[in-house]
Amino acid sequence: MFSTVNLPALGTRFGLPVFFIMGEADLLTSPAIARTYFDSITAPVKSFTLVKRAGHDPNQAVLDAQWTILRDKVAPLIGH
To answer: H helices within the chain, ranges in order?
Structure first.
């Protein structure tokens, strides 16, 4: 997929928080390429979470990471 998508051309400046949560063993979305794109992003708040022993498909470790990010990083931004 990355060979056909130019991520920086899609944008690197965001006016809202940006959170990436991905598996370290993701074969469809390379963590290294995603991290390079993430590092180029400008956003008021941003976070990159790499889930150990997880791939592209949802699994309990990824769901747990998503919940943690929502609870600890997103909810405080909206005052909850």
So the answer is: 7-10, 31-40, 60-69
